[in-house]
Amino acid sequence: MHSPTLPFTIFETYRENVDGKYWLPNYARSDDFVHLKDQSVAIRLIIKWTDFKQISPPKPPAPPAAPAPAAKP
Question: What's the whole-number mean pLDDT along residues 53-71?
Fold first, then answer.
């Protein structure tokens, strides 16, 4: 399958073990051609991910405080 807007159809992806339990992509590469009117141009796309760091999820907001009791007149 070839997209009319994107020339890359096949990606080769390598994964890295992070924290001994997650396999995250750290390198992807694709070689393809862009076909123009009277020529074809070779294109290579390389994407590298580095320095994976685990982040903490945001803390949920505190529940709203109970309203103060109404003062008696």
Answer: 82
Q: Counting Cβ atoms within 10 Å, is residue 27 exposed (0-12), middle (13-18) or buried (19+)? A: middle
Q: Angle at the Cα of 56 (from 52 to 58), degrees rounded to 5? A: 135
Alpha-carbon distance 68 to 73, whole Å?
15
Closest to 46 (Cα-Cα) out of 60, 31, 65, 36: 31
**Any domain includes 34:** yes
Judge whether 16 lies within some domain.
yes
What are 33-57's pLDDT values in tens digits? 888 889 988 989 899 998 877 788 8
